[in-house]
Structure formats: C-alpha cells, structure tokens
Amino acid sequence: MSDANPTEAAILRLTGAVGPGKSIDPTEIARDLAPGPGDAWRQYLSAIRRAAIRLAEAGQIDILRKGKPVPHEQVRGVIRLRARPPEKA
C-alpha cells in the first residue's frame, strides 16, 4: 500500500478499527472520506472498490459477498470489507 493513497489508508484504518471477524460497508469508508451533509461521499465508491481489490490482491483485506470471502476477480454487486485474519501457524 502506498502511504500517499488516502483511500487504501481509510480502508485499512476502518476495517482494523471494527476488530477481527467484523466487516464494514464501503459506504462507511466513503462517508469517512467525505464527511458532512449531502451525498458527496458517493463519488468515492468506485475508487474504494478499486482500492479494496488492490488490498485483497496484496492479502491485506477480505472482500465479502453474502458473508463469504470472494476472490478479487469475482467481485460483483454488494460487498463488505474486513481485515484479513492472521494466518495460523
């Protein structure tokens, strides 16, 4: 992840904040990036989806559909994001 990418940083910060095993809706990240009244947050949704796919490819988060992790190449429709649980030794 690039430290210069605020979208990826927000995804990692917010998925980490909810704790292990919990997920967040991408709109929560968008609202964090564009706080305040109105729907300016909507402009971030495509960028959040692309950043989430990059982070999933890097093994940093899971993208969930219907509560189950999906491969990044199969991401479609409504998704949720969660921090990737640590691998067991």
Describe the overall structure.
The protein is of the alpha+beta class and 89 residues long. It has a single domain, classed as Orthogonal Bundle (Arc Repressor Mutant, subunit A), CATH 1.10.10. Helix content is 38%, strand content 12%. It is built from three helices and three strands. It has helices spanning 6-18, 26-33, 45-57; strands at residues 61-65, 68-69, 80-83. A hairpin with a 2-residue loop joins strand 1 and strand 2. Helix 1 crosses helix 2.
Any descriptors?
alpha+beta; three-stranded antiparallel β-sheet; 3 strands; Arc Repressor Mutant, subunit A; 89 residues
Question: Could you list the spans in which at least 5 consecutive residues all have pLDDT below 50?
Answer: none
Q: Estimate the mean pLDDT confidence.
A: 90
By CATH reckoning, the class would read Mainly Alpha
Biggest sheet features: 3 strands, antiparallel
Determine the CATH superfamily: Winged helix-like DNA-binding domain superfamily/Winged helix DNA-binding domain
* Order of the strands making up the biggest sheet: 2-1-3
Give the tally of β-strands.
3
Map the helices and strands.
Elements: H1 6-18, H2 26-33, H3 45-57, E1 61-65, E2 68-69, E3 80-83
Antiparallel strand pairs: 1-2, 1-3
Helix pairs in contact: 1-2
